[in-house]
Amino acid sequence: MKLATLKDSTRDGRLVVVSRDLTRCSEVGHIARTLQAALDDWAHAGPRLARVAEGLETGSQPAIRFHEHDAASPLPRAYQWADGSAYINHVELVRRARGAEVPESFYTDPLMYQGGSDGFLGPRDPIIAADEAWGIDMEGEVAVIVDDVPMGASEEEARSAIRLVLLVNDVSLRNLVPAELAKGFGFFQSKPASAFSPVAVTPDELGEAWDGGRLHLPLLVSLNGKTFGRADAGTDMTFDFGRLVAHAAKTRPLAAGSIVGSGTVSNRENGGPGRPAAAGGIGYSCIAEQRMVETIEMGAPNTPFLAFGDTVRIEMKDKTGHSIFGAIEQTVKPLGTA
Amino acid sequence: MKLATLKDSTRDGRLVVVSRDLTRCSEVGHIARTLQAALDDWAHAGPRLARVAEGLETGSQPAIRFHEHDAASPLPRAYQWADGSAYINHVELVRRARGAEVPESFYTDPLMYQGGSDGFLGPRDPIIAADEAWGIDMEGEVAVIVDDVPMGASEEEARSAIRLVLLVNDVSLRNLVPAELAKGFGFFQSKPASAFSPVAVTPDELGEAWDGGRLHLPLLVSLNGKTFGRADAGTDMTFDFGRLVAHAAKTRPLAAGSIVGSGTVSNRENGGPGRPAAAGGIGYSCIAEQRMVETIEMGAPNTPFLAFGDTVRIEMKDKTGHSIFGAIEQTVKPLGTA
């Protein structure tokens, strides 16, 4: 089943079930007006929504055209956005670029930060920033939306609580990061609103690409129409989503509708840090990573962060080349021009 | 106007307007079923709720008994909980206890962390922890709930967006903090669910004690029935709420219903770190601070963190001795016994 939220005059938009090919959708206000409402009562709403999805495929369900640009993030606002950093290759590059070691514990204890969730950008909304000098960057990631997870849940319990899978652009302001992390309390101003893919899908929709905790398909990240990265989200993911969700639930329960992210998708290439897509490599899911590789190899970064007018696109396709989640496609714009 | 949320079978409870003396309340489902719904449309809902509050005081409004123990946190779940650390005395003690300097920037740039907001404890709910060895501690704080705040808002704009004031117990797991902060991404497991006071009040309700950005009254914190701290929340607050909210909104808008906290209320005493309440001093709003003073003065901490069975109470009284927000009163219990 594929779900989306259409923008309307309300803060939470309205839930629709979307056809597998992303061309049609059905309103489901009689089941749940919003995605959060469906997640709040998934045991009842989930099966009813699934029947609508079946009807959409067989043609028995009345439908309207679905346009990705009408979609808000599936949860336009959420009660929790907890973002992991599960691809240790990314962490290793961050550290190597500044000449530091990766602590041994990083291979057994997931990194995770609490993100802001009071308002997400729509998948086609601009990325608004007051200043290019903030070092605007995308981070292409996979995320899951969970049902209620009890405090102290096992990885197995955590995996079984995963209801939906989607993509994220975890927008980051790189030049604000060092000073902010030096203060010791983690990210705040350096992580403005994230954007999510137009469509969130149930794990069964992913077939063999979903192994219960990892999504084994390339994440396609492009910048101004050119491929920037195509790292496989199932490769080099040190901690799977079961582990990440269990980490988040160690000392407190997670409420239904909590979103847990993978961190920037990042692959090694031939055991090394990889090569830019422009040089025939797998590339990267964020500019910072390409800059770190440049720093390691050439002593200084070369690729600039995003400028006003730049457009980022993040998408994932199934084995037959069809878009699974629709595309995140965002242009960077200065504050006051939206 | 005073607002509370009564627990019911739903995740968000139901909004009531509470009489100034906290003895009676009126259901206001015809205006807004939940506090978040009221905040989503405050321009319309706020004045209508205020008329109910007037009717409660004059006796023209039908009312039922209000019992603090029936209340959930005013927002049982929220889209944002951003907690500052505005009392630099607290930060100075943290640093001094470990022999470190306070960076100069800390006096001009607020510390703030993104907290989890998917589920708050009710004001009389137990604090559940799997292990006493986590170093369970309370943090008595003041917080505000804001309306929509645009990205880049000035301190003045931020101040004018404050809709409600309330108290917090920002439960902290002290022994999980060092390893977590060393990872660089801030708090996560070390900050489980917080609890808020039974009642949230509009700033006008606070009279002269509210100066637009600070609440000038002692925060009464007790442990197992004995006074632990009575630090004045208006004293030594380096950054007022306008500054904290503007800091949070620097790179992104804040959505209505976002909660911004002050950090542990902490006063100097005669220019120094103060004395325990048991020794006749102003005392502290968290155990960690008393332990830091013990470490500075005696080389090692003496006061233990919370044990199962311990009860914490956090309250604030007006000049005539009446409770303003009702009391947070929580007993620590092991996982599985709730």
UniProtKB/TrEMBL annotation, chains A, B:
It holds the Pfam family FAA_hydro_N_2. Residues 81-332 form the Fumarylacetoacetase-like C-terminal domain. GO terms for molecular function: hydrolase activity. Residues 1-77 form the Fumarylacetoacetase N-terminal domain. InterPro entries: FAA_hydro_N (IPR041072), Fumarylacetoacetase-like_C (IPR011234), Fumarylacetoacetase_C_sf (IPR036663). The keyword NAD does not apply. Keywords: Hydrolase. SUPFAM superfamilies: FAH. This is Fumarylacetoacetate hydrolase family protein. It comes from Shinella pollutisoli.
